């Protein structure tokens, strides 16, 4: 399938095929992409074959063994995302000239912020929608590190992440603070203990530590615990706490639902907690983007 001649130009047809390939890769199979794209599986397969012939390389393996991207497919997907982002940036710049709110806004958000009582992001999205119904908002839930990488390579316009170690190439705007406390589940022996556990007791039970960057205060509190388990995000921490085998820190607003149901409780809440700053992040030196600027203008100042 290797092409004998280099790709001479990128056409509108190529862009449509690359968008289809991106959806297929995100869905993880032709059958899942079928419903997402609103076309038949045979049409998805045919267009994927067209793209492979066009590029002269196999992009994915499909069959009884399942779906998987080839090494070349992963490289094409990465390059395609950069290309499609550049096309969107061009459209955003033209709309900036025309002062029209039309195009895409790609947002990366750390998970579990929707339960945060401060709703600046929600209000800003609502205000953006009220200004124009020709904006396509794409929200991806991810880790702070992946969001930062998405901002640097242009896949994301804006992110919402904990403010721990600011990177020099990004601009940070404080949104609000959230408090995290140490929790155990109803299945854990400490849940039914009559007195608050001391540090020796807490250090003798298993705990879970986040796999992402933390503030110095959060690191110091985790160093008091025995942490044989890690989790990439806060949902993973909650999963492990709910097993009854681990204790761990969760944002109070995220744990509140389980606490209300009697499924979790905080341990030593008067002293075992830390506060984290949440920030909206953009890339320094970014190109003008009317949609992004409108979104940022709609964010309320932190209180």
UniProtKB/TrEMBL annotation:
Pfam families: HTH_1, LysR_substrate
GO molecular function, one term: transcription cis-regulatory region binding
Keywords: DNA-binding, Transcription, Transcription regulation
UniProt key word Chloroplast: no
Domain of life: Bacteria
Domain HTH lysR-type, residue spans: 13-70
DNA-binding in keyword set: yes
InterPro entries given in the database record: LysR_HTH_N, LysR_subst-bd, WH-like_DNA-bd_sf, WH_DNA-bd_sf
Family the UniProt entry places it in: Belongs to the LysR transcriptional regulatory family.
Name used for this protein in its record: LuxR family transcriptional regulator
